[in-house]
Design goal:
Oligomer: single chain
Strand order of the largest sheet: 10-22-21-20-11-18-19
Number of helices: 28
Shape: elongated
Strand content: 5-15%
Distance between the termini: 45 Å
């Protein structure tokens, strides 16, 4: 990490080290000179009083002159020149008290601004200070402490309780309990099981654990964030240059009014009085204070903004271009459904596939194993397992040869195979076929689910000022179009290469200020081409994070909407601070030009203006997120509990559709009646009680945060419809059991009831997940598909 910090110019680093000491010393000297002069004046020693005040003025004029030269070298004019002229003018016309007051004003303004900058950038500096420096590495059966720069990939490290994880890696054994709040802003502890990745910079909140390094320190997550944080605030935003333009016309106006004051009052004192109140050095520094405050505010919610220019552009953006995979979708495929062959069992198909896929590192295999383990299935260790890239796995499970993946489909396809293929096409899902002893026994359908927070986030982005929302993806047009339709996007461009993404982003950027949001390596060029590049840094690539202007360190897309509101608030406050301060200074100059404001009183007035405007700029620390709904801790716990319960129900929801499919094929069979009986049992014992519990426990708790009972009225109405359809299904079941089978006169209405119930439940679950469950921080099963 030392190597990262050393990239800053030596001169700038030295100035930053000296500034916290110089400014308090300057304030102390000028204040002492003012007080000594006041005491001497009160004692009747006028000469001593003048000498003290002259000393204070001279002490201030030297750094003011330096600041003026530095400003001119940087292309800024006006502000510091006025300060030098006013200080020199008070000495020339023997207004020594006014000079001492101006000296105190300048030094206190600089000290106040420095303190404001330190407060505003506290969170960004905290990232640098938290950077891991050492690691405990296993070597020859013992532990050695090494510098973090010496850690290499595949090294085995031990992370002690309370220590920061030094590099990106994978938990080697046991379960790691880590606090990721430094990176994400989320206070909850997270458990990482063996084989799961852990990012550098997080804190071990549990027992010691072993970590196998997957990257060096320079290539790790935290190093990339440190590089961004080190650059934060280094460049001024356009709104700061706007303040410089204010100063460019403010200087001639001040000189003109000073000349007018000389003519009106017939004395140089009138001109000096104008220059005194025209000393807005701390005033114009209130603009970068507001910008830095906005960046600090964003960093608290897990949004690292590279510089002020990115914040200002984010605040005035009109178009957002979003990648699909990992940005609008979870980026992790999940099991959508399991289709068994006739006479087969879905759980057995899943168990066979997951047992074999335990030996695979493929992302689809991981999804199958995760689903099986969450369902409590007992997996069998496979033998003679091998993986053919691009095809799938083959091995022996329980003495039977099992294959999973892209298997050959019979030339004369059975109806259930066609049904699975049609379902995959309609749902834009991938298929993993499962074969036992050479015969297809089922299929597992997988899909990358939409993020739960995506619909709400896109609505909030529109309310924050975005007019166009466009999706770019390298994926096929079918799944891309489905996502675009669900989210109500203004356009979608599928099957895009990295070069194609760059061309699309440039076209949008030429038309308006454009945000590009992505997470993959192929998104990095497009992020760099956009007006503002936003990287999903929590699981995104290092390349995308390095190319971006803004990094979301938490895996929540809604943080972008929060950041936009913060940016707009900070930009508004910055312009407001500049305009209000300049206006007040002009009014004070006009009063002084008529001789109604002596230099000493003008100095005190200008001091008050400067302090007031800088204090106003600090409001940017609280800017934004006003439309964010917050829920009490108890309600958040309820949301988590019901979200987890609904996740389990969603995985069993296919029973209703499967029952309807079976009845449509063979309504009079005993299998159809048994399936209907099982579906009704699911409704009576699990689904309906869950919905009733939501009505009696969760929904009343949400009335307060949502502001009205009307916000939950439609959801309660859906519960009533679900219960009505459940009773209708129960009536059909009783009638069929009295007859011993399902009669033909029942089929049409029963199918309409079951398919209707399935559709209502899918929509209802999706609405609850979008409207309610996303209100809680880090919702459980956040990556699961909407039902």
């Amino acid at each position: 990490m030392t190597e990262l910090r050393s990239t800053e110019p030596t001169r700038r680093s030295a100035a930053r080290r000296l500034r916290p000491r110089f400014e308090p010393a300057l304030l102390a000297l000028t204040t002492c000179a003012l007080l000594v002069g006041a005491i001497a004046w009160a004692a009747g020693a006028a000469n001593i009083a003048d000498a003290a005040w002259i000393t204070g003025t001279v002490v201030a004029i030297l750094p003011a002159f330096t600041w003026m030269l530095l400003a001119l070298w940087r292309g800024r004019t006006g502000v510091d020149l006025i300060a030098v002229l006013s200080l020199g003018g008070t000495l020339a016309v023997h207004e020594y008290l006014a000079g001492a007051l101006i000296a105190v004003m300048l030094s206190s303004g600089q000290a106040l601004d420095s303190a404001a900058q330190r407060r505003a950038t506290h969170d960004l500096r905290a990232l640098l200070e938290h950077a891991p420096r050492f690691a405990h590495r296993q070597a020859s059966g013992s532990l050695e402490t090494v510098a973090v720069e010496d850690v290499r990939a595949d090294d085995v490290l031990v992370v002690a309780p309370g220590e920061s994880v030094p590099v990106d890696g994978v938990v080697r054994s046991g379960v790691a309990v880590v606090d990721e709040s430094v990176l994400t802003g989320e206070p909850a502890h997270v458990e990482r099981a063996a084989g799961e990745p852990v990012r550098s910079g997080v804190v071990n909140a549990g027992a010691a654990f072993e970590l196998r390094a997957s990257a060096t320190a320079a290539e790790s997550t935290y190093a990339g964030i440190v590089r961004l944080a080190a650059e934060a605030g280094a460049e001024r935003a356009p709104v700061v240059r706007l303040a410089d333009r204010y100063a460019a016309w403010f200087l001639p106006l001040a000189l003109l009014l000073a000349g007018g004051g000389w003519l009106i009052t017939g004395s140089a004192v009138g001109a000096v009085a104008v220059l005194v109140v025209a000393t807005p050095c701390p005033l114009l520094l209130a603009v970068p204070v507001a910008v830095a405050s906005g960046m600090s505010r964003a960093s608290r919610i897990g949004v690292i903004i590279r510089d002020g220019a990115a914040l200002e552009n984010l605040g005035r953006a009109e178009t957002a271009v979003l990648d699909k995979t990992g940005t609008l979708t979870a980026g992790r495929p999940t099991v959508l459904d399991v289709v068994p062959a006739p006479g087969g069992d879905a759980e057995e198909v899943l168990r066979l596939a997951a047992s074999l896929d335990q030996m695979s590192q493929h992302v689809l295999a991981e999804a199958i194993v995760t689903r099986a383990r969450r369902g409590g299935l007992a997996l069998t260790p496979p033998s003679d397992a091998w993986e053919q890239p691009g095809r799938g796995m083959s091995g022996v499970v329980g003495g039977e040869r099992v294959e999973v993946g892209k298997l050959a489909v019979p030339e004369h396809r059975p109806s259930w195979v066609n049904s699975a293929l049609n379902r995959a096409m309609l749902d834009a899902a991938a298929i993993a076929w499962v074969a036992r002893e050479g015969e297809l026994c089922g299929a597992v359908l997988l899909r990358d689910p939409l993020r739960r927070d995506a619909p709400r986030t896109l609505r909030r982005l529109r309310s924050a000022g975005l007019r166009r929302l466009i999706m770019l993806t390298g994926d096929r047009s079918e799944p891309a179009s489905e996502v675009a339709a669900v989210l109500g996007l203004d356009g979608v461009h599928a099957e895009q290469t990295p070069a194609g993404k760059v061309a699309r982003v440039r076209a949008e950027s030429d038309a308006s200020t454009t945000i590009m949001v992505g997470d993959g390596v192929n998104d990095a060029p497009a992020l760099a081409a956009a007006t503002v590049g936003v990287a999903m840094g929590a699981r995104g690539s290092t390349a995308s994070s390095e190319a971006a202007d803004i990094v979301l360190t938490t895996d929540r897309l809604d943080r972008l909407a929060d950041a936009m509101l913060i940016a707009r608030g900070a930009r508004r406050i910055a312009v407001q601070s500049a305009a209000a301060g300049m206006g007040l200074s002009v009014i004070a100059m006009m009063i002084a030009a008529f001789g109604w404001l002596p230099p000493a009183a003008g100095a005190l007035l200008q001091e008050g203006i400067d302090i007031a405007v800088i204090a106003n700029a600090l409001r940017a620390l609280r800017a934004g997120r006003r439309d964010q709904i917050t829920v009490p801790q108890g309600t958040g716990a309820l949301l988590h509990r019901f979200a987890a319960a609904q996740g389990a129900l969603r995985e069993t929801l296919h029973l209703i559709r499967d029952t309807a499919d079976l009845i449509s094929l063979d309504p009079g069979s005993k299998d159809s009646l048994a399936a209907l009986r099982q579906a009704q049992q699911f409704l009576d014992q699990q689904l309906v009680p869950h919905e009733k519990a939501e009505d009696s426990q969760l929904y009343p708790a949400l009335i307060g945060p949502l502001g009205s009972s009307e916000a939950i009225a439609t959801m309660s109405r859906a519960h009533a419809e679900i219960e009505r359809l459940g009773r209708r299904t129960a009536t059909h079941l009783r009638l069929a059991e009295s007859r011993g089978h399902i009669e033909g006169d029942q089929v049409a209405d029963l199918l309409a009831t079951l398919y209707g119930l399935y559709a209502v439940l899918r929509l209802h679950f999706a609405q609850e997940e979008e409207n309610y469950f996303t209100l809680a921080e880090a919702p459980p099963n956040a990556g699961e598909p909407g039902a």
